[in-house]
Write a structure and sequence with these properties.
The complex is a heterodimer of chains A (about 250) and B (about 375). Chain A has eight helices and ten strands. Chain A is of the alpha/beta class and about 250 residues long. Chain A has a domain at about 1-65 and about 105-185: Thiolase/Chalcone synthase (Peroxisomal Thiolase, Chain A, domain 1). Classes of the chains: A alpha/beta (about 250), B alpha/beta (about 375).
C-alpha cells in the first residue's frame, strides 16, 4: 500500500483547484546559486507538517531556470561562443556556478543540503509520464523503512524556456512551481497504485488551460483528493505524446 | 531481492577501448588540440552514425552514443522490455548551445534543436528500438548509470517487467562542457596523457571522458552474474565536494552489501582522481571493511577511460561483474607516487587475482548522491 500522508504545493498560476495545501506564489527569480525550481521545491517542502529530514526522496525535475543566457557574456562580438579566443581566455567569462545551475539534479541537491536529507534519492529527468513508473521505487523505499518525499518541480514559464519549447508546446500556456507529496504506509489522503477497476478518468491535458508535464501527477492528485470520485485514474502525457497513468483511491 | 541477471552489454568507450582492454591496463586518454580549454581527454574515436529518423536537425552526441551502444546488442528481447535511460542535461553540447544563443527568438530555428529539450531523447530511443514497456530517464549526475540500474532492478523485482534495458550515456567532452568543469576547478589542466591518476599524490583533478553503456537485465534469462543489492544516500553537504564525515556514503555501501559484507572480494571505486574523492573513498573503504580493508582490492578504471560522467557508473557495474566472472580485479594505471593518505590495495598497473563471489561498485555524484551496487556470482 502506497498511501498519501501529506501534500504541499506552490504554483505560479491559478489552476482552479481550491485546496488548503496549494498556494499561489510569485514567480521565483533566477539567482546566482539556486535555481527557481529549487526555490519552489524548498518553499513547498517547508510547508510540510512532517519534517522531511529522514525521508527518502524521488524528484521529477523539469526545467530548473534560465541558463542559456548565462553564456551570453562569453560570446564574441559576432555572438559566436566557441570561436577564436574561447579556449584561451573567453571561456573564463562563464560563471563557475553555471554548471551547477544547469545540472538537472539541482533540486534534490538543494533539498538535501538545506534540509539535511541523508536518505536514498533518485532524480528523474523532465517527464510527467515517469511518475507512473516510479511506483516500484516508492514501494522499495517504503520497504526500506523510509517515508518517501516525491518532489515535482519546474521553472518552465519564463522566456528562455518558452523559447526552447515553442516549437512543440506552442498552443499551451505553462506554469511553474513545485509539488511535494509524502508517501507512507498509512495516510488520510488516499493511496495510489498502478491499476484500479472502476476509476473515473482524469485527463489534465484537456481539463486544464495550462500545462507543465512534470507537475501534472501532483496536480492530478490534488484534483482527485478534492473531487467527488472514490477512484480516479490520472492520465499523464509527455511532449512527445507518450502516455501513462496511475490510480488514486480514497481511504 | 529476486535474482536479477546481467545479460548482454555493449560499450562505446574512449579510443575504442573494450572491457578486456580495461583488464589489460590500456588507456583511452588522448591529446585534444589547441581549440580545447584542456589538453587531454578520453574521447570516443571516429564519427558517430546519424540517428535514424531523428525528427530534428541537430542530434545530441550523448544520444548518438546511446544509440550506438544499443545498436550493438544482439540478444533477443521481448517487446515489453523496459527502458531506463541515464542521461544528464544536454545543455553543454556546443552546436546546440551556439544555435540556441543565435536563434532563440525564432520558433522555426528552435525546432531544429528541440531534440535536446524535454523528454525527446528517451522517447526517441524507445520508439527506434521498440521498447514498448515502461520507460524513464534518470539524472543524478555521475551516479546516473548506477541509479538507473537500481530503478530497473526494482521494476524487475516488482514484476513490472521481465527484461529491462539500462542505457547510460554522457558527453560533455566539448569546448563548453570542458570549460564549465574547468571553471569549477574540477578538471586536470595538465598536458600529460597520464593525467588521470586516481590515488596518486600528483593528481590534479579528473580527466574528462565520454561514452555509453547498454546493459540488458532479466529475471527470466539466467547468466553468471546477478545484482545482489543496492544502497543510496545523500550527503547533505556541498554540491561539488565530498564530506569529511563519510557516514552517509557508508550507509549506502552497507545497505548494498547487506549480509554479504564479509564476503566482498573487490571494490570498483568511483576513483575520479580528485583529492577529495580519493581521500573520502579511502576513508570509506576503511570504515566499511575495518580489519579486512587493506586485503580487499580496490581499483579505479577512470585512470584508463577518464571520467565518463553519468555513463561511468554503469560501466563500472559491468566491469565489477566482469571482475567476478574472471576472478580478476582490473588495474588502476598511472599510480606511481602513492598518496600517503591513500593506503589501500589499489591494484596498480596489472589485473590481480581475486577470490570471492561478491563485489561492490560505488558512485558519488555532484549534488551529493551516493549510490552503491553489490554484484554477485549466480
Amino acid at each position: 500500500m502506497i498511501a498519501i500522508r501529506e501534500i504541499s504545493a506552490v504554483v505560479t498560476r491559478d489552476l482552479g483547484i481550491v485546496s488548503p495545501w496549494l498556494s499561489i506564489v510569485q514567480q521565483a527569480e533566477d539567482r546566482r546559486s539556486s535555481s527557481p525550481a529549487a526555490q519552489y521545491a524548498l518553499m513547498a517542502a517547508s510547508k510540510l507538517a512532517t519534517s522531511p529530514t529522514k525521508m527518502a526522496m524521488i524528484c521529477f525535475s523539469g526545467p530548473s531556470g534560465a541558463h542559456i543566457s548565462r553564456f551570453d557574456g562569453a560570446c564574441d562580438s559576432q555572438k559566436q561562443l566557441v570561436s577564436d579566443g574561447f579556449a584561451a581566455t573567453r571561456h573564463r567569462k562563464i560563471h563557475p556556478f553555471t554548471l551547477l545551475l544547469a545540472l538537472q539534479n539541482q533540486v534534490p541537491a538543494m533539498l538535501s543540503m538545506q534540509l539535511g536529507m541523508l536518505g536514498p534519492c533518485t532524480n528523474m529527468f523532465e517527464s510527467g509520464t515517469s511518475f507512473a513508473f516510479a511506483l516500484p521505487l516508492i514501494e522499495a523505499y517504503l520497504r526500506g523503512g523510509f517515508r518517501v518525499l516525491v518532489v515535482m518541480s519546474s521553472a518552465a514559464d519564463r522566456l528562455e524556456e518558452r523559447q526552447r519549447t515553442a516549437s512543440f508546446r506552442a498552443s499551451k500556456k505553462s506554469f511553474e512551481g513545485a509539488i511535494c507529496v509524502v508517501f507512507d504506509r498509512k495516510g488520510e489522503l488516499g493511496h495510489i497504485k498502478a491499476e484500479s477497476e472502476h476509476a473515473e478518468w482524469l485527463d489534465l491535458w484537456y481539463d486544464l488551460n495550462v500545462i507543465e508535464p512534470v507537475l501534472m501527477p501532483g496536480v492530478g492528485l490534488l484534483k482527485a483528493i478534492h473531487g467527488k470520485a472514490k477512484q480516479v485514474r490520472v492520465g499523464l502525457r509527455d511532449d512527445t505524446g507518450f502516455e501513462s497513468s496511475f490510480c488514486w483511491e480514497a481511504v | 531481492m529476486r535474482a536479477i541477471y546481467l545479460g548482454e552489454s555493449e560499450h562505446v568507450l574512449p579510443a575504442k577501448l573494450t572491457i578486456d582492454d580495461l583488464f589489460k591496463g590500456r588507456s583511452g586518454v588522448q591529446r585534444l588540440g589547441e581549440q580545447w580549454p584542456v589538453h587531454v581527454a578520453g574521447k570516443v574515436s571516429g564519427t558517430l552514425p546519424d540517428l535514424v529518423d531523428f525528427p530534428f536537425r541537430y542530434q545530441p552526441r550523448a544520444l548518438q552514443l546511446a544509440d550506438k551502444a544499443i545498436s550493438g546488442m544482439s540478444q533477443e528481447r521481448s517487446p515489453q522490455c523496459g527502458l531506463v535511460l541515464a542521461m544528464s542535461s544536454l545543455f553543454s553540447e556546443t552546436d546546440y548551445l551556439q544555435h540556441t544563443l543565435t536563434h532563440r527568438e525564432s520558433e522555426v530555428g528552435m525546432r531544429e534543436v528541440a531534440g535536446f529539450a524535454s523528454d525527446h531523447a528517451l522517447h526517441y530511443l524507445a520508439k527506434r528500438w521498440k521498447f514498448m514497456g515502461p520507460r524513464i530517464r534518470v539524472d543524478s549526475a555521475c551516479a546516473s548509470g548506477s541509479d538507473a540500474l537500481i530503478v530497473a532492478s526494482e521494476w524487475l523485482s516488482a514484476g513490472l517487467v521481465e527484461e529491462c534495458m539500462v542505457v547510460a550515456a554522457a558527453s560533455m567532452l566539448n569546448p563548453v562542457g570542458l570549460a564549465v568543469f574547468k571553471n569549477l576547478r574540477a578538471l586536470s589542466v595538465e598536458n600529460d596523457l597520464e593525467a588521470s591518476r586516481p590515488f596518486d599524490r600528483r593528481r590534479k583533478g579528473f580527466v574528462m571522458g565520454e561514452g555509453a553503456v547498454a546493459l540488458l537485465l532479466s529475471t527470466k534469462t539466467k547468466s553468471s552474474c546477478c545484482v545482489r543489492g543496492w544502497g543510496q544516500s545523500m550527503n547533505a553537504h556541498k554540491f561539488t565536494d565530498l564530506p569529511e564525515d563519510v557516514s552517509a556514503m557508508k550507509q549506502a555501501a552497507l545497505t548494498a552489501a547487506g549480509a554479504n559484507l564479509g564476503d566482498i572480494a573487490y571494490t570498483c571505486a568511483h576513483g575520479t582522481g580528485t583529492a577529495s574523492n580519493d581521500w573520502a573513498e579511502t576513508r570509506l573503504h576503511h570504515d566499511i571493511h575495518r580489519k579486512r580493508a587493506e586485503s580487499i582490492p580496490i581499483s579505479a578504471i577512470k585512470s584508463m577511460t577518464g571520467h565518463c560522467l553519468g555513463a561511468s557508473s554503469l560501466l563500472e557495474i559491468v566491469v565489477t561483474a566482469e571482475a567476478l566472472t574472471r576472478q580478476q580485479a582490473p588495474p588502476t594505471i598511472h599510480l606511481r607516487v602513492p598518496d600517503p593518505l591513500c593506503d589501500l590495495d589499489y591494484v596498480v598497473d596489472h589485473a590481480k587475482v581475486i577470490d570471492g563471489d561478491f563485489a561492490l561498485s560505488q558512485s558519488f555524484a555532484f549534488g551529493g548522491h551516493n549510490s552503491a551496487v553489490l554484484m554477485g556470482l549466480a
